[in-house]
Design brief:
37% helix; Rossmann fold; 10 helices; alpha/beta; 17% strand; eight-stranded mixed sheet; single chain
Length: 245
């Protein structure tokens, strides 16, 4: 059965959507037919990240009966087996967890992986949507506020029975470690209480790529980290190496 992966964070600005797009790109490059479902309605950005212009149909089009799910899903230009279902243009459009679950049920036989880009923040809507995923990736940065919010979100997931969680620490620099924010990565892992699956260094190349709809350059530190995370998701043993600038 395809894996449904929910990528979430307790606070905005952690780079969650960039991780969704980069992880989807890495999985697709490795031969997996991958779908990204964007649910961050207030901060819709995946169409920009993938360089898509004039997106006619999105999730709201499907739920409002304007088209079927396959019409709304768009193939990206970055990889032939990477697809996107955009969030509604209306930031106040609402969906239920049951509707998202039904969408996943309708399309999961066509994909090896479905990545759900949830809205940021701690609210019941996010918890209800994430509940039907096979794996939760909790994203944080070394910022103490992000770390605290990630811990609160993770605790709530555990309390609801969502045990399959892994931690991604994003935007890591030497200045963020050992100085004013946190002493080291172990301090972050211990504070959140979730097993680490990957560390992504601060990398302007991913910022430039996601802002222009271009592929992340091969060999960039962020892409190397995302490829390692994607392989760990597929149960490959990839040693954790951390290189930060």
């Amino acid at each position: 059965m395809p894996k449904v992966i929910a990528v979430t964070s307790g606070k905005g600005g952690t780079g969650k959507s960039s991780i969704c797009s980069g992880l989807g790109y890495a999985l697709a490059k490795q031969g997996n037919r991958t779908l990204i479902i964007e649910l961050d309605f207030g901060l819709r950005c995946m169409d920009i990240i993938f360089g898509m212009k004039d997106v006619e149909y999105d999730i709201s089009s499907v739920l409002d009966g304007k088209c079927d799910i396959h019409t709304a899903i768009r193939q990206t230009s970055l990889a032939s087996n990477l697809y996107l279902l955009c969030a509604p243009k209306d930031p106040f459009y609402t969906v239920t967890a049951e509707q998202i679950t039904q969408i996943c049920q309708d399309v999961k036989k066509y994909y090896d992986y479905i990545i759900i880009d949830t809205g940021a923040g701690i609210n019941s809507h996010v918890f209800d949507i994430v509940a039907q995923s096979n794996l939760i990736l909790v994203v944080t940065t070394p910022d103490p506020i992000c770390v605290r919010d990630a811990r609160m979100m993770s605790d709530a997931f555990y309390a609801r029975g969502n045990q399959s969680q892994r931690l991604i620490i994003n935007k890591v620099t030497k200045n963020a470690l050992g100085y004013s924010l946190v002493r080291d990565l172990d301090e972050i892992i211990d504070a959140i209480g979730v097993q680490l699956i990957g560390v992504i260094p601060e990398d302007y190349q991913i910022v430039a790529s996601t802002g222009t709809g271009q592929p992340i350059p091969s060999g960039s530190p962020s892409l190397v980290a995302l490829e390692a995370i994607s392989k760990r998701i597929q149960d490959e043993y990839i040693p954790l190496t951390i290189k930060v600038g």
